[in-house]
Amino acid sequence: MKSFRIGGIHPKENKFSAGAAIQQADIPATVAIPLAHYIGNPSEAIVKRGDTVKVGQQIGAGSGFISANVHASVSGKVRKIDVQLDATGYRRPAVFIEVEGDEWLETIDRTPDIVRGCSLGKEEIIQKIQDAGIVGLGGATFPAHVKLMPPPGKKAEYLIINGVECEPYLTCDHRLMMEHGEEILIGTTILMKALGVDKAIVGIENNKPDAIEHLTRLATTFLGITIQPLKVQYPQGGEKQLIDAVLRRQVPSGKIPIEIGAVVFNVATTFAVYEAVQKNKPMIDRVMTITGKDAPNASNYRVRLGTYLSHVVEQAGGIPEGTGKIVGGGPMMGRSLMNLDVPMAKGSAGVLFMRDEESIRKPSQNCIRCAKCVSVCPMGLEPYLLMAYCERNMWDELESNRTMDCIECGSCNYTCPSHRPLLDYIRFGKSTVGNIIRNRNNK
């Protein structure tokens, strides 16, 4: 069974909501739609207080090449444009809308009919994706149209669709594949056309046999699309690890996948591409997982962007008794939430309730030089060394030892017998080194 070749771990999967059909989350009374919830420049508000908007109407314009448009997820009146605390703990600009009914733009096709054929050319497809504000929904939230415009001299050979969903607990991608498999494959053909490639591979870990079987059957009517089962191994959902698994090609340090002829999109992003190109629907919602060992109703919900997470959690049965920590995302790469009064963003894949005993960090002890963190690092780094450099403010050494290659998967933390906060230090080091590099390049 195929898998990536460097490092990796196998944490408990805990996919409690894998069999739970996607439910539509209730529309709240008020939303706070972030203007900066993706990698790149924040969008600029193009509405003002008192404006009336419809579902799907553009309210934020992307600023610069690496940026994305933002659209109203509800209909109603713009109450204000202000800052709002987000899941990272920072205050970001947002458009606050008081909901009045549910009136959609007439151009959006809301019928359940599946539209297979696409007569648009490459440039038209890319423009529709850009207009719709689509970003990567696998975690990085990189603007999708940028990936479809390779640098001069670079050409894609393969499109890889990421259906791995290796993060424990999360099942939103699994349910999308089960309930919208045909639309995902149509979205794949659209992306193939935009990239000018004739081969696409959908990678799915073999703990989702129903999704593998379902998409394999559907793919028989789609030319050039292969469904590739993969061994369960975290973090196979990382694009560099997935490329290694399916193509046996490794992306060089500091480079991006197009350097070796590959472009990777998540299945949720691919579904959003289908909706944008075939249904004229901009990115106004996404599917997320509400879960935990004691969650009263572990399930998957389609949620309008800007909806406060507290609203969705209440619909899912509330916070379970004995919860010690609430995580935005999964347990490996997610981050603790200060509270649930933060808005649903394009990158919000889930809310995880962790029990008291699971949420307590054990005391950090001295490194015993066991090298477990080195053996599991999927990027071939030395996490113990990077932490030591960070503790001593040795930024040049951090950079030369490839700290910017870290994908922040948490495998080092998971395996460390001394419970050292390796990832916390490396994240801080990456941030510092990244700033140093940007300042150096701007001189």
Overall strand count: 17
* CATH fold description of the largest domain: Rossmann fold
CATH domain class of the largest domain? Alpha Beta
Profile the largest sheet. Answer: 6 strands, mixed
Protein structure class: alpha/beta
Number of separate structural domains:
4
Averaged pLDDT, please? Answer: 96
Under the CATH scheme, the architecture of the largest domain is 3-Layer(aba) Sandwich
Spatial ordering of strands, largest sheet: 1-14-13-17-15-16
**What is the percent of helical residues?**
25-40%
Shape: globular
Describe the protein's topology:
Layout: E1 22-24, E2 30-34, E3 44-45, E4 52-53, E5 58-61, E6 70-71, E7 76-85, E8 91-99, H1 122-131, H2 144-147, E9 158-162, H3 172-179, H4 181-195, E10 200-205, H5 209-219, E11 225-230, H6 239-247, E12 262-266, H7 267-279, E13 285-292, E14 299-304, H8 309-315, E15 323-328, E16 335-336, E17 350-355, H9 356-359, H10 372-376, H11 383-391, H12 395-400, H13 411-415, H14 422-442
Parallel strand pairs: 1-14, 9-10, 9-12, 10-11, 13-17
Antiparallel strand pairs: 2-8, 3-5, 4-7, 5-6, 7-8, 13-14, 15-16, 15-17
Protein described:
It is built from 14 helices and 17 strands. With 443 residues, the protein is of the alpha/beta class. It has 4 domains: 27-99, OB fold (Dihydrolipoamide Acetyltransferase, E2P) (Beta Barrel); 122-279, NADH-ubiquinone oxidoreductase 51kDa subunit (Rossmann fold, 3-Layer(aba) Sandwich); 286-359, Roll (Ubiquitin-like (UB roll)); 372-442, no CATH class. The strands form 4 sheets. It has a 6-stranded mixed sheet with strand order 1-14-13-17-15-16. Helix 1 (122-131) packs across helix 4 (181-195), helix 3 runs parallel beside helix 5 (209-219) and helix 11 packs across helix 14. The mean pLDDT is 96.
